[in-house]
């Protein structure tokens, strides 16, 4: 069983993100939608898992589940906002939802309990080469802050 | 303290819910948050006026913006997350300093498990991806300098154009 700090180091997605970027670069970002969806989703979750391990082992935070190790997405988002990563986390979070939960592309994301429909705020997203580039940029920026923190 | 939220939303709005179609506008809502009494005059798409009765101040602020879900619950949620006068100052600063982003809309993000309000989202219609990132960094740096740590953590700024493009 690794120590807490060893476990956190194991979950550091630096190499994973670097390799994904290298792969996307090598294809000139000309990838099919299945690849793009899976890359965006895995970028998000690699960061989320790293963050949750840091919370658990380095900050001794406990949440839900038998081992109290189930952290919520909204807490992750909230913490990134407090680090002035509003754009990066919003982009990654929204496109992750589109990639994992919505069939159509482009599509419109609806957040539970939100009032967007009353005000014409339509979070229209298109999963494509451009969103992949932005998702990688965002992941790199978020990683930088997570590694410093 | 009195905060006026001016009607600035130019988008067409369709209110089809029965409760909305039967409601007569403007109407008034009031909530009590600890020592603060909040009274709001609500019009069909905007909060026209919010009167916050605190023990000390009686200032007046004009704020451009609209608030989603115009009811007692929304008011209470916004007030439970942030100091409304600080939020008003932030909205004023944003619309003055970055007019190219358009007029903002406010909404409250909830924890889907607990349904508790978590942060306030200020959404602008315009602003490219690069502009969005720059504005957030600039604004939050200034907010930190001004000692508004809670506001930094509780307010998310979104530019829809940057999200879509």
Short description:
Helices cover 64% and strands 4% of the residues of chain A. Chain A is mainly alpha-helical. Chain A has a two-stranded antiparallel sheet.
Radius of gyration of chain A: 16 Å
Secondary-structure element order of chain B, as H and E? EHEEEEEHHEEHHEH
Order of helices and strands of chain A: HHHHHEHEH
Cα-atom radius of gyration of chain B: 16 Å
Shape of chain A: globular
The CA-CA distance between the termini of chain A, in Å, is 24 Å
The overall average pLDDT of chain A, rounded, is: 93
The structure class of chain A reads mainly alpha
Let me know the average pLDDT of chain B. Answer: 69
Task: Describe the protein's architecture and organization.
The complex is a heterodimer of chains A (149) and B (165). Chain A is built from seven helices and two strands, in the order αααααβαβα. With 149 residues, chain A is mainly alpha-helical. In chain A, helix 3 packs parallel to helix 7. The longest helix of chain A is centred in the first third of the chain and has 26 residues, at 33-58. Chain A is globular. The two termini of chain A are 24 Å apart. With 165 residues, chain B is of the alpha/beta class. Helices cover 35% and strands 32% of the residues of chain B. Chain B contains six helices and nine strands, in the order βαβββββααββααβα. In chain B, the strands form two sheets. Chain B has a five-stranded mixed beta sheet with strand order 2-3-4-1-5. In chain B, strand 3 (36-42) and strand 4 (47-53) form a beta hairpin. The radius of gyration of chain B is 16 Å and the shape is globular. Residues 1-21 and 53-70 of chain B have low confidence and may be disordered. Classes of the chains: A mainly alpha (149), B alpha/beta (165).
